[in-house]
Amino acid sequence: MNSEPAEDRICLLCAEQQLPNGITRNGRFFCQTCDREWILEKRKIARIGKNILSSKEKTEFLLDNLSIFNSSMGLDELMQRFAELISVRLKRDKIAIFVTNLELGEIKLAYYSSRQKTLQRAIKRITLDYDLSYGILVETMAKGEPRFYKFADQSHPFYDFYSKLTGTKSQLVIPILYANTAVGMLTIDYDEEDYSDYFEDQEILQLVVGQFAVSLRNSLIFSKSENQSKNFRSLHTAALTLSQLYLNNHDEMIRMILLTLSGIVESSLTCLIERTSESSKAKIFRLYRDLENYQINTNTTMIEVELIDPLLQIKETITIDPSTSAYVESLGIEGKESMLFPLTLENGTNCVFILTKQESRFPNDEIEALNAFVSLARITMENANLYQNLSNKERLEKEIEIAKEIQSTLLPRNSPEAEGFSFGGFMVPARGIGGDYYDFILSPNRNELFICIGDVSGKGVAAGLVMATVRTILHSLVRVKDSPWEILNDINNYLYASYKEAMTPRFMSMILLRWNLITGEVQYSGAGHGNFYHYHADSKSLSVIETEGVILGIQPDISAFRNESKLRFDSGDTILLYTDGVTEARNADGIEFGESELKSNFFSFISLEPKNILEKIYSELKEFVKEQEQHDDITMVAVRKI
């Protein structure tokens, strides 16, 4: 029996001489050196093809990748260096990195590497819908498995377009998976249909793509946080500008509002439809923004109301495909997705803001920022009307009434839909507009609930504006950060940076709880707000939970005051959070309601539902102060695990 010596067996992946552990089908075997199934070559000298790396070269490739992943760099630089490293090491010319956004249902080309710079510039704006009709690319992402395919076998028009643009005949696709979810994909383009060495490329790249997935996800989260920070700054700057200028120049005010909106979403066309009460014509304000050349143009036209009346009848914010609405298209609006924000002013004027994305959809963080800014814009537009039509006293009273109404919409209207829990919460402002704030924020998977209560320094419109902006920031941060302390730290950075040079600095105390609805564990952090109460149903006892921290906005760095604690909540347990407007309420003799009275009332009414507990406590408080004027906002929150 003829038997080949062991040294005749060469593994093409690790280039080491190895006797196979056992030959499998199609001439493959299991290499004991590299721990992979590979092609067996009967040679005494390893045949290393143009894209097959030796052990030393593979080690260098892995080390180069680790040096990238361990570096601190932006998203664009990360993708550029990763693609260039693959190009140099594997001697590949055309490499693409696509990023998936499941929230928007799209796959976007984030980076394309090619020695042909004209091709690199021409291909940079490709976006695919996350739809199986696109064929192999989306199938690969959905299944999380690498694939090699020929473009000629694909029926979707995208592949013919891509092939003609790049000269690609076949392609290797490797999903970039994080926690078994595709965050993107890496593709290698080949100029031949039957490229025999793709398998080696696949094996080598799969060694590093997992680590790249972690770095890519972290960079995407950081990039998203930077965009949110930019939106927060835009909101703050716009709020200050709109509140001080343009009240006597209506058209210039509208232009500034549209400019700010287009900046938040980077839209090339932003519109406002404005129809005064009972008018047969509507005014259309358009702002065109050239995103490439940074040029801005505006125009204003009149249109018969009957031609766009369905748009003026919209009562709530909606998202549409502009190509499906003849009324939107009649305004010259084209793109992939449009958002319509309707509002009706006190004087009966109907307005609809229309924002359009040309090549993508609106992510949730942008929608949050847009809703917040439209609320600010409404206040400014109402103020402009008041400035023109009312006396100073009437204008001030009306402004407070409008701001109070808008502020009430920012507080929770309904209890969150968390099975097994009961909620209660309310705020009674001292001057129509309050600086107190409370909220319930349920995670999209309904497994976590954030509960907060806070108190802005001062009262009235200024404090209410800070409260509204902090709410927007908080709703955005809980989507990307788990730690209550990290969220408080970011809010502190915003308040300090925004108001450190203001004539009247703004500070805010807060308690933030992160409640795991599955385990019952509560993680909480404090920012100089004081205590809250925990009623234990099993022992029928009451605990006073002391929070720590420092008031937000006083100093730039609060890391020395970091505090994070945990509590366990069992069935029947109830918590009560409150602001100092409750305990510091005084009667005619100057005596405060106090914590002891609050605890006593809480304990006395504990058998009631949380919302009824708060109503009873407030009734006792009103009986205590009688006719005395309320000097501070009164806010309370109660939550029970059923």
From TrEMBL:
<feature type="domain" description="GAF">
    <location>
        <begin position="74"/>
        <end position="226"/>
    </location>
</feature>
<dbReference type="Pfam" id="PF07228">
    <property type="entry name" value="SpoIIE"/>
</dbReference>
<dbReference type="InterPro" id="IPR003018">
    <property type="entry name" value="GAF"/>
</dbReference>
<feature type="domain" description="PPM-type phosphatase">
    <location>
        <begin position="418"/>
        <end position="641"/>
    </location>
</feature>
<dbReference type="GO" id="GO:0016791">
    <property type="term" value="F:phosphatase activity"/>
</dbReference>
<dbReference type="InterPro" id="IPR001932">
    <property type="entry name" value="PPM-type_phosphatase-like_dom"/>
</dbReference>
<dbReference type="InterPro" id="IPR036457">
    <property type="entry name" value="PPM-type-like_dom_sf"/>
</dbReference>
<keyword id="KW-0378">Hydrolase</keyword>
<dbReference type="InterPro" id="IPR052016">
    <property type="entry name" value="Bact_Sigma-Reg"/>
</dbReference>
<dbReference type="InterPro" id="IPR029016">
    <property type="entry name" value="GAF-like_dom_sf"/>
</dbReference>
<protein>
    <submittedName>
        <fullName>SpoIIE family protein phosphatase</fullName>
    </submittedName>
</protein>
